[in-house]
Structure formats: C-alpha cells, structure tokens
Give the backbone structure.
Amino acid sequence: MTSSQQPPPEPSEPPHQHGPGRVPGHAPDHGHGHSHSHGPAAPVSQHLRKVIAAVLIPFAAAVVVGLAVFWPGGAPAHERTGVGFDRQTQQAKVVKVEQVDCKDVNASQVPPTGDTSTPEGSSAQQQATGDCDRATVEVTTGKDKGRTFVEIVQPDQTRKLKEGQGVVVAYAPDAPRELQYSVTDVDRQVPMVLLAAIFAVVVVLVGRMRGLMALVSLAISFAVLTLFILPAILQGSNPLMVAVIGSSAIMLAALYLCHGLTARTSVAVLGTLISLVLIGLLGSVFIDWAELSGNTDDNTGLIHGLYPDIDMSGLLLAGVIIGSLGVLDDVTVTQTSAVWELHAADPTMGARKLYRAGLRIGRDHIASVVNTLVLAYAGAALPLLLLFSIAQSSVGTVAGSELIAEEIVRTLVGSIGLVASVPVTTALAALVVSADKAGGPAPAAAGRAQPRGGRGRRRKR
C-alpha cells in the first residue's frame, strides 16, 4: 500500500537530478558532476570525463603557449601614404550649406568630395553646370580642431551635405592649405552604436544568461582578433599559425562560455578542431596549387606595399580558417546536442544507431549551411560578378580569374570542412555517449522501472 502512494518522478526532471539514492549502484559523484546548462541530458561517467580532459587540457595549454609565443610586441609603425584607408582622418561637422552657381566656383582649386589629388576631378568640375552646394565644414578633432574649410558638392554627386551633419574628413599634409582637408564619408557612429545596443538588448532578453554569455564570447572574439591576430600578422608572424592559434582561443572561449564546461561541449570542441585542421590542409594545398597570391585588389596591394614581408597567400588561408569558424561552431554544437538528446530519449541505442540517427538530422543542416556559405560569398562578390557580366565574359574566364578563383577556393574549402564536421562530430558524440556505462540516463531509467516491478510483486503476494 505504501508503495502505491509513492509519487512518480516528474517527466520534466532531468534523470541525473534524482539523486544517487534513487539509482541503485550509481556512484554519488556521477549525479552532480557537470553543469545542467544543457537541459535534460545526463553527464557522462568519470572515466570518460578523464579521457576527454586528457585530450583537451594539452590542447588548451598549447593554445595558451602559442598566444604567449606569438603575442605581438607592437606593430611596426609606418608613414601614412595618404591613399585609401591609409589616410589620416578626423571628425568634422557641416556648419553651413549654401547654393552657388557652379560656374562661379573655382574648380581648379576645389576638387570633388573625397578627392584631393586627381586632376580628372578638377576637369569634371570645370564642366559642371547648374547650382552647386558650398558647404562650410569645421574640424572637431585633432590638432586643427576648430579649423574650417569649404567643400563643393556638385549637383550630380549622390552624397549631399546638410547643415549640422557629422562627417569624416581626410587630411593631406603635403597639399596646399586650402586643399588639406576634404570630406570622405558620413559619420555613422550614432546609428551604429544604437543598432549594436538594440542587438545586445534583444540577445539578452531572448537568450537570458545564454545570451549574455554569447555577448561576452563575442567581445572576447573581437579582442583576440584586434589585439592578437591582426597585430601579430603585421609584425611579421606566419599568418596561418596566428590564425590557427587565434581561432582555437576564440573557439574555446565561445563554446565553453555559451554551452558550459561539459562533456557535450568538449565533444563539439573536438569536432570543430578536427574540421579546422581539415580546412587548413585543404586550403593550403589548393591555394598553392591554384597559385593564388592573395594580392588581388587595392586594399591587399596597399598592405603588401606597406608590409612587403607579409605572406599574402598565408593571409588568404588565415581568412578562410577564421571565416569558417563561426559556422563550424554552430554545426558541431547542433550535432552533439542532437546525439545527446537521442540517447536521452532512447538509452538502449548503441553507437551505430545513434550515429545513423544523428547523421539524418545533420543532412538537413548540411544543405542549409552550404547554401548559406555560397550565397554569402556570392553576395559579397556581386559587384565583381556584375562587371564580368557586363564584359560578357565566359563562365570559364570568370572562374579562372584570380579574383573569382579566390572566392571559389574560399567557399569550397570552407564548405568541405563544414560538411565533414557533421559525420566527424556525430561519430565522436555517438562513441562518447554510448560508451558511458556508469553515467547517463540509462541507469536512471532502470531505477525508475524497478519500483514498478516491486509494486507488481507486492500485488502478486
């Protein structure tokens, strides 16, 4: 009678939270050995945790040593060229705008917006007719704070200046005084900061603590990128080594902060690491085989001119690795969680059945992720593809050009690594969770079944 009055355990309660006393033969330290941040999945046994730690602790130590060895002592300084992004810039504000006849403007002394050097700009302005905007701009930062200059905006220019508008101005110290400053862009700090704040609020409201940890890991990722990866490459370190070390540090911080210090997260880390190695090997082989220099546009040309010792092809490979990392994290965590939940739903499933079931889930993920990557790279290269279309170039000519070949190699190498991460991570998760005999939901399920058997025996009596 007393046994019939025992309340059954709540279905929503995780199996490993029933306590060691309710599971005969279950070691007490197995019941609370891991964080519960992953939901109902039970922790693995002490033995498997030791095996995973034996693999990941040396890897984490190697990442720390790599950070210490390659940490930049300070990027070498250089004199600004005044070209492109290497120009000195300051903040400024438009204080006055008035319309004038373009014929009254001395075009030979006032270049178009953002141009302080090209004679073509002057000739174009000499031919301008109609009303031009003459804007008086005040510099608000730097040694010339408070200085004003005049900017002429022609009627056919797309960007118009308005009174009170914040702008970014370029400084050319070698130009005549009246031409030293020119407007190069609009100051977008306020909308960008506001959008970032809205993003952070939405992430925290929806994700709660997980969302907060995601923002922390995002901040760490940017810190590693700006404080380690970029300065180390500028200092002359091997871009591939720097990218591997930096990506590993980002991966460890992001995965463990967002998903907890658990065996499930550790399996995702291992799957991500193996996939990154594969991407690095494939990228290295095909970048060398296709003879991709990595120096294909004005920006990379400027970098090579300022820092000729930088390995530009290695920089290209580093970009492939870093660019693939974010999507890899998503795929490996999803696959590991899927296998864990399958095992929790049916603890009798062996490694082979878990692998097959997890792989069926992963195939849907593969299709969407590969499509996402290809469309992302195609969208970034859309203006370039449009130029080839205007020139009526053949598909073979377009694909064989170095600009497009870089994007093809970047896309296909990253996609191969992503596709490979699904079976690799699924196999690792299936082996780990099925090899766990002392922990997991199976003993808990047996412990719940035993009282029902006991009640049946009492009824027979």
